[in-house]
Amino acid sequence: MPETLLQPDRGQPAHPIHLVTPDGVDAWLKVQPPRVRSALAAQRFTGKAGGHAVYVDDNVQAIIVAATPGPWTLARAVAALPGGTYRVNGDLGPAALGWLLGQYRFDRYRKADDTAARILLTSDAAAIDETLRIARATALVRDLVNTGAGDLGPAELEVIAEQLAQQHGATVTVTHGDALATGYPLIHAVGQAAVKERAPRLIELEWGDPAHPRIGVVGKGVVFDTGGLDIKPAAGMRLMKKDMGGAAHALALADLVMAARLPVRLHLLIPAVENAIAGNAFRPGDVLRSRLGPTVENTNTDAEGRLILADALTKAGEGKPELILDFATLTGAARVALGPDLPPLFTDDDALADDLLAAGTALDDPMWRLPLWDGYDDMLASDIADMVNAPDGGFAGAITAALFLRRFVPKGVAWAHMDVFAWRPSAKPGRPKGGDAYAVRACYAVLKQRYPC
């Protein structure tokens, strides 16, 4: 995200933008000169939320935007404006983020957008760095999820982690090969059928003062999911490049934490695999041993995300963190229940749930809490092992997946699981169709609140 798109206001020449709430448009129009009212009427500007119009006032091109306050206030307008420098007359608030994200383009596989930059001036110079950090983190999620699986495998996720480590002074440890097979058997089992160049691994990044509170951030990194031997149909496999969306979210949140230099000891864990099909692919009916020790009867090779997360969560818990957050494109059941825009939040910690939900509402980055219903825990029972990874019947799929993960989180550790979609099926202002970040801004806000600098 170019830093030049948001600049401090030093009185530079700029086109004025008037932000007016829809119910305040009539009053605003009444005090405008007739030429302005005529120009807006000619454009059929009605003041409907999200509408905007361009007019000339005192020989300067000006813009009126009818919008409710929030991050997406300017997102629709910026996409339609020509290149240039602009200034909001009044309180900008969080709208600067939408200005930046409204100019996001994914150009890796096509000609770059040649639209001139639209620069926004702000008198709140202190907010520029933070807004740019959040915009860059969101763009990172979008870029990674939008990238084709042929160009983004476990090795490429490792490179991204290394780049963040170099940028922020962190250390990266990668476990693969025989060490993965013995130390993280579930991660190894899921990824063992991939070709050598896309071999499975556990990527760990650590940053911060060891004396500070330890937090774990875990992201599901299935770079492509065929479904394994329980193969997905074509329609179900079409978007499976996005199955590493949890890893993208975790990388973005880690970047925000390190860039803000929050007083924490950060432990980022990404189990990175390709769920491929080959003669050595793990099979339905196989009994797998976890890093924690309990055995898992594999009832569905397409329920692989929870398997790799189980070993990663176990490793995160071994560091005795006071908080673990995990992100995963885990279940279709979550989409059936809540749709693509609203990720379910699972946690047994009421205070953590309250904080995350409040932050999501305040930032227009919402979640919806679903229960870790103990009554469904027996659905994970197996006749031959300690548990199954996917119960029969399909009932409460998002809940039983979360209950499976909970078994690998140490007692007494605050933990939240976000079952994110990581994809926007249709465009909204500032949020183009394609890969997108969900709940990252809310989680970051809670971390800033709990661990202030």
Automatic annotation (TrEMBL):
The protein's matches in PROSITE patterns, at most eight in alphabetical order, are given as: CYTOSOL_AP
UniProt keyword Nucleotide-binding present? no
Q: Where is the Cytosol aminopeptidase domain?
A: 300-307
Offer one Pfam family short name for this entry: Peptidase_M17_N_1
The alphabetical list of record keywords is:
Aminopeptidase, Hydrolase, Manganese, Protease
Transmembrane is among the record's keywords = no
| InterPro entries xrefs | Leucine_aapep/pepB (IPR011356), Macro_dom-like (IPR043472), Peptidase_M17_C (IPR000819), Peptidase_M17_N_1 (IPR048816)
Which molecular-function annotations from GO does this UniProt entry contain? aminopeptidase activity
Instruction: State the family named in the UniProt similarity comment for this chain.
Output: Belongs to the peptidase M17 family.
* Protein name as it appears in the record: Leucyl aminopeptidase family protein
Origin species: Sphingomonas insulae
